[in-house]
């Protein structure tokens, strides 16, 4: 399973910031970083980034990279804005798919929307369609999520919060895991016990036989 995570825009993109100066990319890039870390817990998952912390990557370069790597899903993370750049009351979470509403994209978008709304406790603005470049020019399932409005004071407080960024990342990971039935990597050790004996002599005899055959063995007492 190959997943491309896209932190929308870039650190120097003009206008992509809250009225009090938080840059959208600060939110977007942290969320995908946390999401990548979360996806490491799953088997057979490879994560790619389409963006860069050192430059603003053009949209065409992002989608070309996704297509060249033949990823299975492209997930773009954003923070929204409304109006002329000042504070206003528009708030909430919304998720986008391409206007043709591909079934798999719509299914994933529905999970993304539900999960992010659940952690944000903001208005559910629903799953919508848009002719965005990253939805139109990608050859794989593509979804774009707007996780709150930078131009709303309450939303902006959330967007600045590291705990919210981690919660959104986890919500996205859970949506991907549910959609694609990802399996967690096993944790801890698997143990093989040859036998349990009430007699110490029997236990030591079996242990000696195993050692003679080249198998490391030991005896321990358990009440």
From TrEMBL:
Membrane spanning residue stretches: none
SUPFAM superfamilies found in the cross-reference section: Sporulation related repeat (SSF110997), Zn-dependent exopeptidases (SSF53187)
UniProt keyword terms in alphabetical order: Hydrolase
CDD domains: MurNAc-LAA
PROSITE patterns membership: SPOR (PS51724)
Ranges for region Disordered: 1-22
Gene3D superfamilies in UniProt: Sporulation related repeat, Zn-dependent exopeptidases
Domain (SPOR): residue spans on this chain: 184-223
Protein name from the UniProt record: N-acetylmuramoyl-L-alanine amidase
Organism classification: Bacteria, Bacillati, Bacillota, Bacilli, Bacillales
């Amino acid at each position: 399973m190959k997943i491309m995570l896209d932190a929308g825009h870039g650190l120097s993109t003009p206008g992509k910031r809250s009225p009090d100066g938080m840059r959208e990319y600060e939110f977007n890039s942290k969320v995908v970083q946390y999401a990548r870390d979360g996806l490491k817990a799953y088997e057979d998952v490879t994560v790619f980034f389409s963006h860069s912390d050192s430059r603003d990557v053009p949209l065409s370069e992002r989608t070309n990279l996704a297509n060249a790597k033949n990823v299975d899903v492209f997930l773009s993370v954003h923070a929204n804005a409304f109006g002329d750049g000042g504070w206003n009351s528009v708030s909430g979470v919304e998720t986008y798919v391409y206007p043709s509403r591909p079934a798999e994209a719509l299914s994933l978008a529905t999970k993304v929307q539900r999960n992010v709304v659940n952690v944000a406790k903001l208005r559910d603005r629903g799953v919508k369609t848009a002719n965005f470049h990253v939805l139109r020019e990608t050859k794989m399932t593509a979804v774009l999520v707007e996780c709150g409005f930078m131009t709303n004071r309450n939303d902006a407080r959330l967007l600045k919060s590291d705990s919210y960024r981690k919660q959104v990342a986890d919500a996205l990971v859970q949506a991907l895991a549910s959609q694609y039935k990802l399996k967690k990597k096993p944790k801890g050790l698997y143990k093989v016990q040859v036998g349990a004996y009430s007699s110490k002599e029997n236990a030591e005899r079996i242990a000696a036989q195993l050692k003679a055959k080249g198998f490391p063995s030991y005896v321990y007492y358990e009440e």
